[in-house]
Amino acid sequence: MTDEFDLVVRGGDVIDGTGRPRFAADVGIKEGQVAALTVPGAITGKATLDARGLVVAPGFVDIHSHADWLLPLDDHGEILAPMLRQGVTSLVVGNCGHSLAPVTEDSTRLADVSSEILRDRAFPYAWRSTAEMLDAIEARGVAFNVAFLAGHGTIRQSVMGNAPRAPAPDELDALRRATRDALREGAFGLSAGLAYKPGVFAPSDELASLCNVVAEEGAIFTVHGRAYVWISPFYKPMLLGAPHNVRSVDELVTAAKRGGARLQLSHQIFIGRRTWRTYPTVLRRIEEAVASGVDVAFDAFPYTVGNTTINAILPAWVLDHFEERIRDPKVLARLRREFAMFRLALGLDWSDITVTWGGGKASLEPLEGLDIAAIARRLGVSPFDAYVHVSRESSGAARVLIGTYSGDDTDEEPLRAVLSHRLCAFETDAILTRRGRFHNPASFGTFPRVLGRYSRDLGLFSLEEAVRRMTSFPAERVGLPGVGRLAPGHAADLVLFDPLRVGEGGPNAPPVGIDKVVLGGHVVVDRGAMRLDRPRGRVLRRR
């Protein structure tokens, strides 16, 4: 046959995303889909990519990222280029309870506050419902395949603002209706962020009720738990009973079980050196839940630092009326005592918290890139006062990197245990904007680091298993149609990489060993060079 295909990827070793061993094959692509997998040399195309010496894998699926407030922007492909360069072709957004929709005229103001660290610039909401949002983004075009989750916090704000209480019966009915509408309009699941306002105020009964809606609609519940530390402000009694991160997993598993929902535990981490010892118990609890019939899995990134808002470690009683309380001397005196206790109990130092963006405040720009201990020295105040200064001056919007996430430079035992687990999907938790001069390394190197350091170099799992857990596994968890596998009828989203060289680059630098990235049959990355002549992705909708 002559030029039967639009593109042929020739001479590579195919790892198809299912976990089965690699095999030599040519890939025929036609009209944006994989049309054939054949013995080498059997087909021809209008164009050919030479994949000799390379692995040909499905495009990577990032099950947990925060690109929502970038995707409607015309230049989102440029801002998110580090994601494409590392092989990500599909994004799951709307995580940690924050999503672009549904919103009301009043709740957009609250959504703006909640999304401050995720936004690149001022953001107009040209929609109200999830369906209107999906249509608007689809009309503009996207540089990735994108699947949206409905944010529990966003829905809660649209129904009851940031009220620090359980919903009244009529409000719970409204939360259930809004959740059902979002899922029926194309959202793939409901996400919750139980350490962030307003999700922090949601009781377990509310979560279980919403899980029931999620289950009835055949969707998934993804959740940022209340605690990733062994002791926190969220559970009482504080020092007796199970560690708080264990209680958090138990609470979420129970809510999912009561509601019958599939559960995805977001970014399974262990924060603070004294929390690391709890990892066997947490993983065992998850395995026991699976054995009892709960459909639960989790995801993680391959770094011992993670990005969040500076207010993520504040207790709920401070977040309620934050602007007043962060200036109240009595509140600060109590908070100072609690911080001293928690830092000592957790094994978390002030030097483990680095400010990457000062919330757009000119006075905080000189502090970007410094940890809290260094900021304290520069300002001539205590580290606690330095932390409060950054939180207060940025109105809680400052972005930070926190260390001791499941390990540090000298000890990665908890991290390696998590990444090795068969129920772990790989993700970035990335927040990428033009704001600030420093970014989460996961935004640049997550998937190459897994393939290089943890699979090839350390041998924690095979290359085929690594690819499975960054392609078909997350796609199946969320229910994404036509992505995550290299098979006829699936989207022609491919990553060509050198298995001997693949790995992360330096800080905020492109990875190495990623030769090409193909999206919808078009080359969008060629040895690090971007080809963004037009958006090549698709807005995915739950069927």
Automatic annotation (TrEMBL):
Pfam families: Amidohydro_3 (PF07969). Residues 48-525 form the Amidohydrolase domain. Gene3D superfamilies: D-aminoacylase. Domain 3, Metal-dependent hydrolases, Urease, subunit C, domain 1. This is Amidohydrolase family protein. It comes from Polyangium sorediatum.
